[in-house]
Q: What sequence folds into this?
């Protein structure tokens, strides 16, 4: 067995054992949120880290996933297990519509246009009160499974933890498969030199749209898991600020790596809990970390660890 | 008909503010290739500072604006030196991420210093002119005139002065500009000072015409970029036309369709232009 695989197994076992090690219930809650954010960050990483297009609409897509899953389960009475699968597909439809014009522009302009889409989604969630209940949000969103006291009781935080952990592992594996496939290689090539990719006869826009839509599906899935976990959602949590957090998670963890988003997700969920600052301080600190990390540590924590390892290795 | 004309006048005032923001963004982009996303938050800082100086310190409005302009210029220069300059040779996406980080920092600082309350800069301009059934509040007139003067001043500066020529030269070809003896270390600082001054002016206009609150700056900078997409990048006439088009569209949308969805409609116009005329309304094909 290769060393990397052993490490992976140890990390996985740690995640499985985590609920038994945690004594404070609140940390279990944060761990569930962090795992949901792992899915968010893996999606963001596909478009930002691997394709080189900074998308600022991920929280908006998370919102579409959350609201569509919540509404399908409450208004249409569909089982939650079905709506959690359907929600990413609904999100993908929106992402197709948003991605087509957005991907006609590159670099900064792509970022700005996607951000405009996040604002549009936010405004619609806020004002489409018949469906979304506006600022007050939706409450009483059902959990998966057969209700309280069932054999597998999703109201039990440990059960929900393992549920989200399973999905996060599957999605991370899916991201790994995509990245290592031919499509993933083309995405990497687009990041390096898009003109070159186009010049050898590859329709780059198709691959970019694919990456954009898949990343949106990750976000939509994360949104659905979030909605059914919290039982309550409102537009606030799907604003541009959360999209910036997704970007931060990818940068700080290590963009264009598979472990980076995992580290980054736990970072953005746990850090504000440890630094119990006012919201304004959190913004200043996050901003500062983002600036310093980009200037001094552009490859994130994973890149830093890698550098340290090679230095240590060569010293021997 | 008067209703439509009325909304167009309202739209021109808002559009003037958008033009100022867009001009600040376009000169920075021209020189450094950076989408200076923090521009909106820095502009709001200027608006907040003006409010603070007038209301808390009791300074006259003109003096307060002058101090805000100078402070804003210093802040702009510092941003260039400390945050963007280290990334001169890095990937442009990294510079954009730094811009996002700066936005968070400035937004957080605004929140910390000035609070989360919505503020309005008080002015004495409360008269309302009546022109053939159309109402034109004095304040709106000042905003339109102020924007026009600043746009003209900036155009003259960039087109006619020696420094303006140097700025255009660096935008065109940095290496050639170095060979011609232009101080390329200095030019970005000048550009950031001008850009931020225009932004602070826009911030004061927003603060007196509407209101300043957390998040307004982000909305404003996105509108500024929308103007650049509408008008075509790097063109001053394009920014002016784009800004007015965006402002008027928004005012008409707010007046006749829905004020809640006016931003949505403005963004739809931007996306439509992106699809039909990717080079912008005034851009060269």
A:
């Amino acid at each position: 067995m290769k060393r990397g695989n052993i490490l992976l197994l140890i990390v996985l076992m740690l995640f499985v054992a985590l609920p038994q090690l945690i004594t404070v219930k609140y940390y279990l809650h944060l761990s569930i949120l962090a795992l949901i954010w792992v899915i968010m960050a893996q999606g963001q990483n596909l478009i930002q880290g691997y394709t080189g297009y900074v998308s600022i609409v991920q929280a908006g897509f998370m919102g579409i996933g959350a609201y569509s899953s919540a509404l399908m389960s409450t208004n249409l009475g569909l089982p939650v297990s079905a709506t959690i699968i359907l929600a990413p597909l609904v999100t993908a439809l929106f992402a197709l519509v948003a991605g087509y014009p957005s991907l006609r522009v590159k670099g900064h302009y792509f970022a700005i246009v996607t951000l405009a889409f996040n604002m549009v989604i936010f405004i619609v969630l806020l004002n489409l009160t018949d469906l979304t209940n506006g600022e007050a949000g939706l409450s009483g969103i059902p959990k998966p499974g057969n209700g309280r006291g069932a054999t597998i009781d999703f109201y039990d935080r440990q059960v929900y933890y393992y549920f989200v952990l399973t999905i996060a592992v599957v999605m991370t594996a899916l991201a790994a498969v995509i990245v290592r496939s031919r499509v993933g290689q083309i995405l990497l090539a687009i990041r390096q030199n898009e003109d070159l990719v186009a010049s050898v006869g590859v329709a780059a826009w198709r691959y970019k749209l694919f990456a954009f839509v898949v990343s949106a599906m990750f976000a939509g899935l994360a949104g659905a898991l979030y909605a059914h976990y919290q039982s309550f959602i409102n537009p606030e949590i799907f604003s541009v600020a959360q999209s910036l957090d997704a970007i931060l998670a990818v940068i700080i963890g290590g963009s264009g790596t598979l472990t980076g988003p995992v580290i980054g997700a736990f970072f953005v969920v746990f850090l504000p809990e440890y630094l119990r600052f006012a919201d304004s301080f959190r913004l200043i600190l996050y901003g500062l970390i983002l600036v310093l990390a980009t200037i001094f540590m552009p490859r994130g924590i994973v890149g830093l660890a890698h550098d340290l390892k090679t230095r240590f290795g060569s010293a021997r | 008909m008067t209703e439509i004309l009325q909304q167009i006048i309202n739209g021109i005032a808002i559009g003037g503010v958008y033009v100022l923001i867009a001009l600040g963004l376009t000169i920075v982009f021209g020189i450094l290739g950076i989408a200076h996303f923090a521009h909106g938050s820095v502009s709001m800082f200027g608006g907040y500072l003006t409010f603070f100086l007038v209301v808390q310190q009791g300074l006259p409005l003109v003096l307060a604006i002058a101090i805000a302009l100078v402070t804003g210029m210093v802040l702009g220069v510092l941003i260039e030196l400390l945050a963007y300059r280290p990334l001169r040779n890095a990937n442009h996406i990294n510079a954009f991420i730094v811009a996002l980080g700066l936005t968070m920092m400035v937004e957080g600082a605004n929140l910390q210093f000035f609070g989360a309350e919505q503020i309005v800069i008080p002015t004495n301009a409360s008269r309302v002119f009546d022109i053939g059934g159309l109402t034109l509040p004095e304040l709106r007139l000042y905003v339109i005139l102020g924007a026009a003067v600043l746009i003209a001043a900036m155009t003259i500066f960039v087109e006619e002065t020696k420094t303006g020529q140097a700025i255009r030269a660096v935008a065109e070809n940095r290496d050639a500009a170095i060979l011609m003896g232009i101080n390329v270390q200095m030019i970005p600082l000048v550009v950031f000072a001008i850009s931020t001054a225009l932004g602070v002016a826009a911030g004061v206009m927003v603060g007196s015409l509407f209101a300043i609150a957390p998040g307004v700056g982000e909305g404003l900078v996105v509108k500024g970029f929308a103007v650049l997409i509408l008008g075509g990048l790097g063109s001053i006439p394009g920014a002016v036309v784009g800004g007015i088009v965006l402002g008027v569209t928004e005012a008409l949308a707010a007046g006749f369709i829905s004020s809640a969805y006016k931003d949505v409609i403005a963004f739809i116009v931007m996306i439509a232009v992106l699809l039909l005329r990717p080079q912008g309304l005034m851009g060269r094909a």
Q: What stands out?
A: The beta strands of chain A are 138-139, 232-233. The CA atoms of residues 187 and 208 of chain A lie 7 Å apart. Residues 26-238 of chain A form one domain. Chain A has a mean pLDDT of 90.
